[in-house]
Amino acid sequence: VHLAESGGGLVQAGGSLRLSCAASGRTLSIHNMGWYRQAPGKQRELVATITMGSGYTNYADSVKGRFTISRDNAKNTMYLQMNSLKPEDAAVYYCEARYTTTWGAEAGSWGQGTQVTVSS
């Protein structure tokens, strides 16, 4: 499974951005996808996750009510709509896909990341 993020950029505090994560390869084997972020000097942290079947979502407390994760199974693409952005949301955002390999093992793939910068 290969992932490619897009949609990052520079935005003023209070503004919005929408990130996309396009999956290719064994996309039918993906069962969960998620967004993570890493700011300079900090550990990578979970932002939101979504299951590909039921669409069940989970959010970090810091983004609840402001960010929305969604997926379009027909396009093999996951999105992160980010509203009311704050300077502390600035980070490199990564998407991850959890999938089952051909031999039945659990595996994960990461995208290359997309930079989100929020000016105050």
Question: In brief, what are we looking at here?
Answer:
This protein is an all-beta fold and 120 residues long. The protein has no helices and 11 strands.
Strand segment count: 11
Number of helices in the DSSP assignment: 0
Query: So what's the overall shape?
Result: elongated
Question: Could you say which structural class the secondary elements and strand pairing correspond to?
Answer: mainly beta
Proportion of residues in extended strands? over 45%
State the distance separating the first and last CA atoms: 37 Å
Instruction: State the helical fraction.
Output: under 10%
pLDDT < 50 runs, ≥5 residues: none
How would you state the average pLDDT, rounded?
Answer: 96
CA-based gyration radius: 14 Å
Biggest sheet descriptor:
7 strands, mixed
Order of helices and strands: EEEEEEEEEEE
